[in-house]
């Protein structure tokens, strides 16, 4: 594509946007032509001054882009090979950006967890993007790259080692983090107020109709319990419905490509905690769900949560950590395990890493990406190219197939 920018970070002056901008300034290869985009020119200029200059490369460009200005949005999409968005709530601020990217043939990635909005993107844009080879890849943050790429990695390893399909994958997250940022809370409140939150209870929300018979529609866990396969206690996890929907879409899309995960493939996950803590978190989840369902509860959440643009301290984010342990059951009953671990708190530092590496894979690794366009998932759009990037960025990603002895990596 004849574009003057390889990558545009849209929503760059928000909290997660600033973290992502710092990541790009520190990790983008020399010569990457990238830009910061947002509504406020003064904030964009201040952010650029705060970033370490990119050595041996052009100065980071600045683009004034407001979601309510269709001309500016179209111009941004037309100039870029890839747009990466941190501007949420995404159904409000990033929806016109996706439309512009599809019209311009520009690849797109974001960190939304708003799967009902992703479903609407599929309905409106998947057919055209698939026909024209444009990759639209929402959900490239903590939700849902670890679950989606981790599951794909493990399923692929089982297929390679045993020539076996996989019936199910279960996961256990262990997290340490500095807390949520205001933008994440705003997105959750928007989901609740719009009525979209109810759609999170549908495991098949993102699965194309032809693939619904290929995956299992059992819901994710709703209460604390012991998982004997993983040998841990698991609490329900707030991100599990989102991760399940994404992983099942990946399974269905890979089946369309002739690389099915397995018959009636199932995915489930939970939060790894001691027994007492798991029971307490399970009760807390029910209270939190009740708060978001009521107008008074949402008002209380707004009062207690950080406002958009604010979030945890640098020290708190740096002290965070993400680990996902996975176990796969092959069709013949054998088990294989995997692990994906990342430094940094989940919702900010790790999310920025995931998004930026996904965007750079779209911009720089096109020949290594799985073929085909559409409204895709991280696993179906980026696959092994993203996995290789994550490993180089310091993410641990391993699988072990016991019958084969030593750990293997796809």
Structure description:
The longest helix is centred in the C-terminal third of the chain and has 19 residues, at 275-293. Helix 3 crosses helix 5 (95-104) and helix 13 (346-364) packs across helix 15. The protein is 44% helix and 19% strand. Strands 3-2-1-4-5-6-13 form a 7-stranded parallel sheet, sandwiched between helices. The chain is globular, with a radius of gyration of 20 Å. It has 410 residues and is an alpha/beta fold. It folds into 2 domains: 5-142 and 351-388, NAD(P)-binding Rossmann-like Domain (Rossmann fold); 145-346 and 395-404, Dihydrodipicolinate Reductase, domain 2 (2-Layer Sandwich).
Summary of the model, kept short:
With 410 residues, the protein is an alpha/beta fold. It has helices spanning 15-27, 41-50, 70-79, 90-93, 95-104, 115-132, 145-162, 182-194, 240-256, 275-293, 295-304, 314-318, 346-364, 378-381, 383-392; strands at 5-10, 34-38, 61-64, 80-85, 107-110, 135-137, 166-176, 225-227, 232-235, 266-272, 321-330, 335-343, 374-375, 396-400.
